Amino acid sequence: MKVSVDEELVRKLESLALISLSPEERREIVKDLSRILDFFNKIDEINLEDVEPMFHPLSQGRLRKDQPRDPLPRDEAIKNAKKKKDGYIIGPSTTGG
Amino acid sequence: MSSELKIKVGLEVHVHITSLKTKLFCSCPSNYVNLDPNSDVCPVCLGLPGAIPVLNEEALRKAIMVALALGCDIAPSLMFSRKHYFYPDMAKNYQISQYDGPGTAAIAKNGAVWLGEKKIRIRRINIEEDPAKSVYPTGSILTSPYTLLDYNRSGIGMLEIVTEPDIEDAKEAKSFLDKLKSILEHLDVCDCSIEGSMRADVNISVTGGERVEVKNVGSPSDVKDVIEYESARQRAAILQGLKVQRETRHWDSDRKVTVSSRVKETDEDYRYFPDPDLPPLPITKEYIERVKETLPELPDSRIERLSKQYGISKYNATVLVMDKALADLFEAASAEVKDYERLSNLLINDYLRWINDRNMKLSDSKATPKHIVQLMQLLDSGVITIKIAKEILPTIILEGKMPREIVDELGLTRVSDEKLIETIIEEVITEEPELVTKVKKDPKVANYIVGKVMRKTGKRADPKLVNELIRRKLGV
Ligand SMILES: [Zn+2]
């Protein structure tokens, strides 16, 4: 699958990643992304018709028994949160602007 | 009303696997209700970097049970994908879910739920984790300057059950959800009486319009309201020559309307990819066979069995089984009750109706099989009338008092003394002597006299007996 990288695509990626780039950064990223995709396009040339795709280096996942264990003490659990209130973590408004 | 504008509804039902003792990918206790915020969390469900999720084996077993009960094809291998989005309720910025795409698949596909002869196709079933709970300090998502986050709910195991757009009206959607709920309760997957344990996204379109998605509808009866509201709104728009555009709307359960979501609708781009923390796990045929052997009796066969074993009508059996707790109550009480049809009628027409009319849940009732058995015995032995039974039901349901006790305290035993009833009939006739001639012209007047006598005895007389005595006395 050939993807052409332009500023419009980068803008979409910005919005998906919730970041904003300066015009210079955007031009740089267009170049970087194109280069990265070229590597993949090279790899895509290999004929893999009879090869099963592999998504994990480990062949098999594991399961856990349904037995409860003590959760973290609350103070410790939210220690790293910058803003908190009455045991809650404060996050941004989700409709703001 | 334009009947040629047909509606098509597909549901995405999210149910908590409430029978699990721990969360989906960590060992935090899964019973998070009424806990202090963020007191039931660990590095995994907080989404801290480096924490590794490990699947709860019981969640897999429950998912397979549901897949088997709905007649689905089960994937040969269990795989999880990351569904990316940025939102405060998901600290790691992705939800662990399942996806049909290159190299990954949902756990089950192509099933069905039957509503009598009507087939509602199930497109797929996913296992996924619930996000954290957002609390809005002003009470409204629109006006809150920030969001309060409680991660106790984060990581709770859920199943997403997605239908094809086979549902044709609000009533059918309600029947579908009732049936699904009953199946999940019989499988001991979800105790759907727990607030918020069953939510749905409703996709609805009207002939000539595009698909509208109403997100996060909190209960089956709200789903019915959403469909009624949206089909009326969309039909009206089309009949006025307006376009129904593809959009996401939200359900305002207080005002009973859907509101266009203010968020700009771009193509959802969740950038799914297989979760590298969760390598695939083969689901062997032997494993599926073993789970199949543990499948309990399911609603359709229970309906069959109840109507055969107890000789009750198919209709009654169906109503009982649609609420597992009610069917259980029936079967427990039936051990000591002789008249099964009467028992089922009492449970459906009086007990269940009283609870439904008050928007209560069966699980709120304090009545046990013992209460119902005693109530039936009082009825069968003629100690009380059906009217009195109806009258004391609320006290049984709300206070859990034994029927005998209520009857003794309030002196509600049936008046079956013929002499006494005759005296009361005479009283009525003395008050309204014209009744004697009236009833001879129109035998229906007897019912009026029965009513008078019932009132005078505080509903304690047996209406049949009263009727008989009136007819005998007045020669009707
Ligand atoms: Zn946890």
Automatic annotation (TrEMBL), chain A:
Q: Which domain of life is it from?
A: Archaea
A molecular function (GO) held by this record is: glutaminyl-tRNA synthase (glutamine-hydrolyzing) activity
Q: Quick one: where's region Disordered?
A: 59-97
Q: Name one GO biological process term.
A: regulation of translational fidelity
Q: Where is the composition biased (Basic and acidic residues)?
A: 63-79
User: What's in the keyword line of the UniProt record?
Assistant: ATP-binding, Ligase, Nucleotide-binding, Protein biosynthesis, Transferase
Catalysed conversion reaction: L-aspartyl-tRNA(Asn) + L-glutamine + ATP + H2O = L-asparaginyl-tRNA(Asn) + L-glutamate + ADP + phosphate + 2 H(+); L-glutamyl-tRNA(Gln) + L-glutamine + ATP + H2O = L-glutaminyl-tRNA(Gln) + L-glutamate + ADP + phosphate + H(+)
UniProt entry tagged with the keyword Flavoprotein: no
Q: Which InterPro entries match?
A: Asp/Glu-ADT_sf_sub_c (IPR036113), GatC (IPR003837)
Going by the record, the broad EC class of this enzyme is ligase
Which Enzyme Commission number(s) are on file for it? 6.3.5.-
Q: What NCBIfam families is this protein classified in?
A: gatC, PRK00034.3-4
What family is reported? Belongs to the GatC family.
Subunit and partners? Heterotrimer of A, B and C subunits.
Q: What functional role does this protein have?
A: Allows the formation of correctly charged Asn-tRNA(Asn) or Gln-tRNA(Gln) through the transamidation of misacylated Asp-tRNA(Asn) or Glu-tRNA(Gln) in organisms which lack either or both of asparaginyl-tRNA or glutaminyl-tRNA synthetases. The reaction takes place in the presence of glutamine and ATP through an activated phospho-Asp-tRNA(Asn) or phospho-Glu-tRNA(Gln).
Q: What is this protein called?
A: Aspartyl/glutamyl-tRNA(Asn/Gln) amidotransferase subunit C
List the source organism: Metallosphaera yellowstonensis MK1
TrEMBL record, chain B:
Q: Which Gene3D superfamilies match?
A: 1.10.10.410, GatB domain, N-terminal subdomain
Per its UniProt entry, which superkingdom is the organism in?
Answer: Archaea
Keyword Transcription recorded:
no
EC numbers on record: 6.3.5.-
- Mind telling me which SUPFAM superfamilies this protein's record contains? GatB/YqeY motif, Glutamine synthetase/guanido kinase
**Keyword list, A-Z:** ATP-binding, Ligase, Nucleotide-binding, Protein biosynthesis, Transferase
Question: SMART domains from the xrefs?
Answer: GatB_Yqey
Q: Which residues form a coiled coil?
A: none
Question: Which reaction equation describes what this protein catalyses?
Answer: L-glutamyl-tRNA(Gln) + L-glutamine + ATP + H2O = L-glutaminyl-tRNA(Gln) + L-glutamate + ADP + phosphate + H(+); L-aspartyl-tRNA(Asn) + L-glutamine + ATP + H2O = L-asparaginyl-tRNA(Asn) + L-glutamate + ADP + phosphate + 2 H(+)
Residue ranges annotated for the Asn/Gln amidotransferase domain, each copy included = 328-474
Q: Which molecular function GO terms apply here?
A: asparaginyl-tRNA synthase (glutamine-hydrolyzing) activity; ATP binding; glutaminyl-tRNA synthase (glutamine-hydrolyzing) activity; transferase activity
Gene Ontology BP, a term: glutaminyl-tRNAGln biosynthesis via transamidation
Describe its assembly: Heterotrimer of A, B and C subunits.
Q: Which NCBIfam families match?
A: gatB, PRK05477.1-2, PRK05477.1-4
UniProt function note: Allows the formation of correctly charged Asn-tRNA(Asn) or Gln-tRNA(Gln) through the transamidation of misacylated Asp-tRNA(Asn) or Glu-tRNA(Gln) in organisms which lack either or both of asparaginyl-tRNA or glutaminyl-tRNA synthetases. The reaction takes place in the presence of glutamine and ATP through an activated phospho-Asp-tRNA(Asn) or phospho-Glu-tRNA(Gln).
The UniProt entry's sequence similarity note says: Belongs to the GatB/GatE family. GatB subfamily.
Return the protein name. Aspartyl/glutamyl-tRNA(Asn/Gln) amidotransferase subunit B
Task: From the UniProt record, report the name of the gene that encodes this protein.
Answer: gatB
